[in-house]
Write the structure tokens for this entry.
Amino acid sequence: MAKRQVGHKMNAEIEERTVIKFDPPVSTQRYMEVCKILSQDATVEKVVDFGCSNGQFFKHIKRIQHLRQFVGVDVSYGVLESAYRAALPLAWECIFKRDRTLNIQFFRGNVSDQDSRLAGFDAVTCIELIEHLNEKDLQAVPATIFNFIRPKVAVITTPNRDFNVVFPELQGKRHWDHKFEWSRAEFQQWCSKVVDQYPSYTVEYTGVGDAPSDKYQDIGHCSQIAVFKRSHQSTEDESQSSPPPPSFPYELEFQTIHVGKEV
């Protein structure tokens, strides 16, 4: 739910000019929603998070007990170092162990490149990533995820431009590095093209970050989410396609482990 921070005396003008505060923060809502989606399938054991940034998502996903392997990918060594530190097991986690051992790796690389170590992962997440990509890299995303990795589920989130009317002082885009911000119609059009190209997948839409009042009608959520799921019965062409030759363009920068009870 979104709330407005206002003074004791409130009128319409002040309400329009005050800053939105999400409770919990919309970034936390995104992480919680993605984890909720991944938790629904106990066969999801290996997850790769493209654009993992400083590792805040890992603090949430590590609570999924059936997870066995987590890989974070980013182009920046600096944020990968921060993500690694965030992923190190805490003292109490060494005492009260997970049900299963969780192996964590952080690779430096680009989502447009295809690394054989990720082929066959159960789930892919791209949380507020695609809007930072240039056109060439964005065009390569569907092939990397749906043709090369071919996960059981893929979750992609991106800002909803329709929601920007809630931010009256916003000029331009929400972040200086955003190459674009799609409306719900534009995002769904892009996703529809993906499932047309890869028909073994279906897509559903959700989102997080509600509008602050009834004043804003039919603008959707602050962050829009597409959930792609692969059908159990792949097409004949996909099942007969030969795998590409091994390729390892990513650099493994950091790794750690959360030891489980079975060890």
Q: What stands out?
A: Residues 135-149 form the longest helix (15 residues). The CA atoms of residues 102 and 258 lie 5 Å apart. The chain has one domain: 21-234+241-258. The chain is about 30% helix and 25% strand.
